[in-house]
Amino acid sequence: MDTLEELNRRGFIEESIDPTLDLFEEIEKLKKEKNAIVLAHYYQEPDIQDIADYIGDSLGLSQEAAKTEADVIVFAGVHFMAETAKILSPEKTVLLPDLKAGCSLADSCPPHLFKKFKEKYPDHLVITYVNCTAELKAMSDIVCTSTNAVQIVESLPKEQKIIFGPDKNLGAWVAKKTGRDLVLWNGACMVHEIFSREKITKLKSRHPGAVFLAHPECEEAVLELADYIGSTTGILNYATKSNAKEFIVATESGIIHQMEKANPTKTFIPAPPNNNCACNDCPYMKRNTLEKLYLCIKNGLPEVTVPADIIREARKPIERMLEISASLGL
Ligand code: 13P
Ligand code: SF4
C-alpha cells in the first residue's frame, strides 16, 4: 500500500489488479458494501459513465452531491468538482480516483492574484464560474455554471457592477447575452480554446445539414458559428430533441458517448481543433480510469479535503447559486 506521501506525489493508488476480475461487478459490490455513490461528469471515459450512479454537468453534479444520502461520494470528474461536493457535504468522504485530475481553467486563476484583482474593484460583486478552486469560491459572492450563468447575472439589479471569472470566453458570452458590462478575469480552458473556426467552417460546408453545437467556454469566433450554445447537458438535450440527423460538437469528446446512446440513429462529429490531433480530450478528465476508480473505492483513497474555513466561506456562494437555480427550475 502506498504511503500518503507517495499517493499525493503520484495522485492515485498503484496496486496490481487481478486481470480476471470483472471491474464493473467489483465496483457494484464495493458501492453497496461502502454505501458509496459514483458521480461522473460527461467528459469521463465511457466505462466510467456506464458504471456511474449519476452522470451530469457541473450544476447537476453539485445538486446531486448536495442531496445524496450515501456515506461516500466517489467523484469521477476533476478536483474542483470533488471540492464542491466536499463543501456541500462536509460530513461525507469525497474520493477522486486521481488527485492530479486538475483543470487548466482553474489553474489560470491563482487565488492570490485574483485577490489583488478583486481589490481594484471594491464596489463590484464577484461571480465565479464553478470551474475554479475552493479558495476562489470562498472569495466570491455567487458561483455559477454554464447552465445558469446568464440567469444568475440577470437576477442582479441592472446597476450592480460585476466581476466575472475565471473564464473570459464564458464571461464575454454572458456579457453579450445579458447586455451587462462585466469585468472579466483573463482565464480560459485549454480544451475549448483549441477549436478552429476555419476548420469548422470547412466541415460545415461539407455537411450542410449538420447542426453546430458549442459550449460557451469556446472563443467568440467559434460561438458565432453555432446554432446552439449551452452546457454539456444543454448540448445533449438539444441534440436529443432536434429532428436533425447530423451534429458537429464543439466540446470535450466524452459527451458524444451519451449523445450516441440517446440518439443511435444520429451522427455526431467532434469539432476539429487547430492542431493535428484528432481528439478533443481533456487531459485532466481523462486521468481517471476504471482501474483507478476501482482502487479508489476499494481503498477509500485518494480523499479530497477542504480546510474548514474555506468550506464555511465557499459554501455561501455555492448555496446561493443552488437557491437561484431552484427558484428558476434549473
Ligand atoms: P458543464 O458540464 O457544466 O457544461 O462544464 C463543462 C466543463 O468544462 C467541465 O469541466
Ligand atoms: Fe477544465 Fe477545460 Fe478540462 Fe473542463 S474541459 S476540466 S474546464 S480543462
Radius of gyration: 20 Å
Number of strands: 12
Low-pLDDT parts are: none
Number of domains: 3
SSE topology:
Blueprint: H1 4-10, H2 23-34, E1 36-41, H3 46-51, E2 54-56, H4 58-67, E3 72-76, H5 79-88, E4 93-95, H6 104-107, H7 111-119, E5 125-129, H8 134-137, E6 142-144, H9 149-154, E7 162-165, H10 168-178, E8 183-184, H11 197-206, E9 211-214, H12 220-223, E10 228-229, H13 232-241, E11 246-250, H14 255-262, E12 267-270, H15 290-299, H16 308-327
Parallel strand pairs: 1-2, 1-3, 3-4, 5-6, 5-7, 7-8, 9-10, 9-11, 11-12
Helix pairs in contact: 2-15, 4-5, 5-16, 13-14
Q: Could you describe the 3D structure shown?
A:
With 330 residues, the protein is of the alpha/beta class. The chain folds into three domains: 4-101 and 284-306, NadA-like (Rossmann fold, 3-Layer(aba) Sandwich); 105-188 and 312-327, Rossmann fold, CATH 3.40.50; 197-270, Rossmann fold (3-Layer(aba) Sandwich), CATH 3.40.50. It is 43% helix and 14% strand. It contains 16 helices and twelve strands. The protein has helices spanning 4-10, 23-34, 46-51, 58-67, 79-88, 104-107, 111-119, 134-137, 149-154, 168-178, 197-206, 220-223, 232-241, 255-262, 290-299, 308-327; strands at residues 36-41, 54-56, 72-76, 93-95, 125-129, 142-144, 162-165, 183-184, 211-214, 228-229, 246-250, 267-270. Strands 2-1-3-4 form a four-stranded parallel beta sheet, sandwiched between helices. Helix 12 links the parallel strand 9 and strand 10 (228-229). Helix 2 (23-34) packs parallel to helix 15 (290-299), helix 4 (58-67) runs parallel beside helix 5 (79-88) and helix 5 packs across helix 16 (308-327). The chain is globular and about 55 Å long. The relative contact order is 0.18. The model has no long low-confidence stretch (mean pLDDT 96). The structure holds 1,3-dihydroxyacetonephosphate (13P) and iron/sulfur cluster. Residues 78, 103-105, 131, 189-191, 252, 282, 284-285 line the site of iron/sulfur cluster.
